[in-house]
Amino acid sequence: MIRKAIIPAAGYGTRSLPITKVIPKEMFPVGVKPAIHYIVEEALDSGIEQILIVVSKRKGLILDYFDDSLGLEVFLERENKQHLLKQHKIPDAEMYYTRQSYPKGLGDAVRLGKHFIGNEPFAVLLPDDIVLSKKTPGLKQLIEDYTKHQKSVIGLNVVKPAFLKNYGVIKGAEIKPGTFQLDDIVEKPKENPPSNLAVIGRYIFTPQIFSHLENLKPGAGGEIQLTDAIKTMLQTDKCFGKIIEGNRFDIGSTNDYVNLLQTISKMD
Length: 268
Ligand code: G1P
Description:
Elements: E1 4-8, E2 29-30, E3 33-34, H1 35-45, E4 50-55, H2 60-66, H3 70-78, H4 83-87, E5 94-99, H5 106-111, H6 114-117, E6 122-125, E7 129-132, H7 138-149, E8 152-158, E9 168-176, E10 179-187, E11 197-205, H8 209-213, H9 226-233, E12 239-243, E13 247-250, H10 254-267
Bound molecules: 1-O-phosphono-alpha-D-glucopyranose.
The site of 1-O-phosphono-alpha-D-glucopyranose has 14 residues, from strand 11 and helix 9.
């Protein structure tokens, strides 16, 4: 059973400057909800009970958003607008926060969750990636595989060759349609990507990943990379990858963000 999740939300959002000077990327509106609302909902719909969000300076809006807003509730009741109470409801999750003081990379952000996680398997959801799936929530699809193998499972997406340089890319053997046993993984390959299977921001890890996150040297982009910890984990442990069914939108890409808004407006 996977009860805990880490959502790393400490990046500066440099791809989306200048708006990210004042609005964290995770708080970009998607309809009337911020992007991170969809991530937390996906986690809860997948059975997660406790969520640690790793924030950084100027991300206070995220904490405010998930707070109770008693004043607003009293106001809506007094004004006889009870019907709006349901609409403004935030996901009912047990939330925890910690701060990354310097953006050292995704691997460092996940490492900060070590004590929160303790000694149990857990999920990581990257809030850049919104996954809209018709049936099973993206994360839940990975949990189903974890339940079978009891090994770490990474969300994958088939990506056009020109874009592979933006992602972690795996090498692996397909053990059943859509599920791969990893042989290798490379962060943002500049050339010769090992496959067309890119990592999307959903992971299930055994707690062993933390020992591989210790003492990691900066990798691609000078950052401590989660991908590099997965790579060393592969020397001693099995790890699987699963193509996630659903549409994935990267809200740090203006094109994807606009597509997401259009898709959501058609769904409403
Ligand atoms: C991160 C990971 C990368 C993964 C990507 C998915 O990269 O390091 O392996 O493919 O998320 O969105 P980032 O987008 O933070 O540069």
